[in-house]
Specification:
The complex is a heterotrimer. Chain A has 11 helices and 10 strands. By secondary structure, chain A is an alpha/beta fold. Chain A folds into 2 domains: 5-105 and 168-250, 3-Layer(aba) Sandwich (Rossmann fold), CATH 3.40.50.300; 252-293, no CATH class. A 6-stranded mixed sheet of chain A has the order 6-7-8-3-9-10, with helices on both faces. A 4-stranded antiparallel sheet of chain A has the order 2-1-4-5, with helices on one face. In chain A, helix 3 packs across helix 4 (124-137). The radius of gyration of chain A is 21 Å and the shape is globular. Chain B is mostly helical. In chain B, 66% of the residues lie in helices and 3% in strands. Chain B contains 11 helices and 2 strands, in the order H-H-H-H-H-E-E-H-H-H-H-H-H. The longest helix of chain B has 31 residues, at 155-185. By secondary structure, chain C is α/β, with parallel strands linked by helices. Chain C has 2 domains: 3-105 and 163-244, Rossmann fold (3-Layer(aba) Sandwich), CATH 3.40.50; 249-289, no CATH class. In chain C, the strands form 2 sheets. Chain C has a 6-stranded mixed sheet with strand order 6-7-8-3-9-10, sandwiched between helices. The longest helix of chain C is centred in the middle third of the chain and has 18 residues, at 179-196. Classes of the chains: A alpha/beta, B mainly alpha, C alpha/beta. Chains in contact: A-B, A-C, B-C.
Chain lengths: 293, 275, 289
Amino acid sequence: MQKTPIIKAEHLTFSYPGDAESKPVRALDDVSFEIEEGSFTAILGHNGSGKSTLAKLLCMVNYPDSGELLLCGKDLTAPDVTEEDILAARRDIGMVFQNPDNQIVASIVEEDVAFGCENLGIPSAEIRKRVDQALEEVGMTKYARSSPHNLSGGQKQRVAIAGVIAMKRKCVIFDESTAMLDPLGRQDVMNTAMKLNREDGITVILITHYMSEAAMADRIIVMNQGKILRDGTPSEVFSDPEAMWDAGLDVPQTTELLYKMRKAGYDVRLDLFDENDCAAEIARAMKRAREGK
Amino acid sequence: MKSDITFGQYVEGNSLIHRLDPRMKIVLSILYIVTIFLAKSVTAFALLTLSAFLLIALTGLSPAMILRGMRPLLFIIVFTAVFNIFWMTGDTLLISLGPIKIYLEGIINAVLIILRIVLLIVATSVFLTYTTTPLALTDGLEQLLAPLKKLHVPVHEFSMMMTIALRFIPTLIDETQKIMNAQKARGADFSTGNLLQRAKALIPILIPLFISAFRRADELATAMECRCYTGGEGRTRMNVLRSTPKDWAAAFVVLVLGAAIVLANLYFPLYGLTL
Amino acid sequence: MATIELNNITFTYNKNTPSAVCALDHVSLKIDGAADGITGLIGHTGSGKSTLVQMLNGLLKPDEGQVILDGTDIWAEPKKIRDVRFKAGLVMQYPEYQLFAETVREDIAFGPKNMGLTGDELNTRVLEAAKFSGLSHELLDKSPFELSGGQKRRAALAGVMAMQPKILILDEPAAGLDPVGRRDILGGIRKYAGESGTTVIIVSHSMEDMAMYCDKLVVMADAKILMHKTCAEVFSEYQKLTSVGLDVPQITRIASALAENGVDIGADIYTVDYAVKQLLKQRQRGGVS
């Protein structure tokens, strides 16, 4: 397994400036982590936990007050960093935002997918090829000439993802991209994100407050009050439901059930997210308990 | 449930005119307009009218629809006609009723002027609005005006603004509808009261609408930045406009028409137009 | 307590055009506020549920059929449709986008003022609504645009509650909120329903939330009402829900998987606590084969 960190954050701190009435708000407080190339990481946290601030730092909309941030090995917080370095780093990291409407620029789907490539100055024929491929990959070829206005939320997000694919980015950050979607749209976006990661090896960072989505990741970072509260595999993170509840979060219902069964005295594992596995585990434990009597 | 809002007047199609290069269409419509202004005689106008019918036939659009599109201009058309009929003097007096005198020249003039207005509308709508998407028009205009960039005219910025406006108009129309419904649900009344009361009733719609538009603009700016947008410099386009022989053939036809009109004016100056 | 009756309602968007879409197809529904508790309305996007909601407060007028609130046909006197909106309060999706006044207080007062209320009565209503929606007093004199996302949502909610409607309809009241925010707002609504005696209808996509906070469910699919039953009854018809593209709470799926593993705790499982309770009952009974 490759071990190159595509993102490396060291002691990142960021505060929103206060105004006459309010004090500055510390949104990130000494945050350090590494993201491996090709991984699928979920960042969980309640509203105001600092997770969206983190996303804004990673795509360089905001700059940290202190700490180091390395993207693809390039230190963007070094004193000698230039505008060009930042632009270069931006080429590798894409964002899919929460509101599907406010990130689509053109009034024709394929023109919007092409937008990023056009900004990079890629030759026309190459853009055409990339756009067609990207639309194919997200299953939107049929809508290439449609107006984005007539698409559903999930479809709009897939158009945004196609734009990221066409730019051949190494890493995509989904900043609560499913929050405004209905269940089908959410599933659409999650499936596409999984596909990007599994088939194309693109690093995915998924910021969300849906536990079921986070459970699909390889790794979960839990944010609380600007700090990293937990960092581990879904099994590790969800195996302590009390800590999650304290942080204003939830756990999948599989874990909740297993946890409550364990509290009732059954010897069950907690790290099962599949409904069938969970049911089998409980059935086994109940059988064992009966036989033990 | 989405309301199906079409704006602009673009009609989907795949006719020869639809497929012309938008840059050429802009040039053609200008040439055609010049030609219309060159026409001075009844013969020239007959020729032009014929060409307009041919043009409409080429687009596959229904003439009735194009006529319907002229309804907003009906007043101007009627006004000019009346003006010409009653005020124009000439050699052939047709009707004389007290102070009202109507001359043959007045009637011909009125007809020709109406024709001119109608033809102008046909030219712009057939070449531009009905057969070219607003986006293609913006693109065409940007590329036609590209040389002006050297004079520091913000051509790219202008066309980007147009593109974004076109993209967000339907979104904002939807949003207005939603906000109106939300305020109606709180008992807002937009349809009764005097003018001042009605204007005041719009505040609960306009403020949220503006705030939302600003929020969208802010988010869009961030998104564009994340997609590496840094202005027009160094940008390429996926769809580069290319003129094909068809475009040049069309230009040739329009130029021939122009020449024919000039000739018609010179050699068949039947009832020349004044004005 | 209010009752809602829909009699054979039909509604088509863009009627008589090629893009006509039938959103409600001869829909009849009766909700008895006192007996039914909180009603949840579920269905995937385009199933007609948003249209149905807009029928209830007269934002849309049915092509056919009648909407009867508290025994009166709301379209009997079309000029008085505004009064219907005070009776059936509607909180739309993302209601924070409708805030406009200079202070939160004024914004909440907008609805009651439109009803013609003034002075003390108006003031009391604003304060009561703020209390119900969980908005603290010191926020009332702030600009609504200074509030946090969750507070804005509450302020918008209070704006409709202040009209003291007999029926309160909420379209995705918890959309975009985190787990705690969801719990607070939905729990608050449930408490409000109980204390004020308002008939509450919640529209949502989240089956887990619906299972937690609603008593009865109306399931819509293809412009028709598929089911109108208690939560337990609806979720026990697992297949019927999935056939129209709807989900069930995860715990319901676990219960069904448990049955396959020989632990049958019934088909009407839709909350984790109830599942645990049923499982522990099995132990007392000495288990199954």
